[in-house]
Amino acid sequence: MPTMLIFFIFLILILILFGSVKLILFMEKKKAGEITLITTQKEIEHEKAKLDTENEEIEREKERVEKLIKLSLKLEKEKEELKKSIYEQQKMGKAAQKISDSLKAELIEIEKLREQSTKPYPNLSARGRLVWRNPELGGYDCYYNKDDTNPFSKNLVHIYVAEKWIYNKDKSYYKLPFKSYQVHHIDDDKYNHRINNLILLTPEQHNKVTKIIKNNEAQGLGAIKKAGIEIPSHLRNNLNQL
Fold this sequence. Notes:
With 242 residues, this protein is of the alpha+beta class.
């Protein structure tokens, strides 16, 4: 009996020891599992943080790429606008050059015409003397004195003829100083300096006659007559044309 009791006690102790060992192993295993789980969670969190960082970098890269694309499109647009601007400038430049060439040709032609128009010529109504048409004085004839240093004088032919052959010959009619009068070409031809085509008028009389002519109320001596101006002696022989 004591032997059996000892055996059972020993057996119980073995079972308790086995259970304790098993429990210890279980606890160790559980503890190891918890450690593994903690480690895994940390690794997961680390991987998550790493993924978040990568995602942020991806988003930043995406934004950078989008900005580059927008910049590229903007630069492409500016490039096209620049090409268009250059084309327009070239087009305008060609047009300007064409206009410039045309103007140069016109200026050359005008200069030729000016040279022709200002070329001295003998005018019979100026007693056959050489005259030239002065563009600075409305194209009126001026005397050309070939023996002078500057032969192109500014002495107007119609003024000279009017003073010498009309004013000085009829001072009983022309009572004012010569410079108080204006010389009028009766037939409206400013290159006809014959005495019977010139008359001296005061500025007021001249304006009145000019107005009558422009309104087609009368022409020639008729306009002078209509203006109420007495016909001077050197023109009275021409009254038959009225």
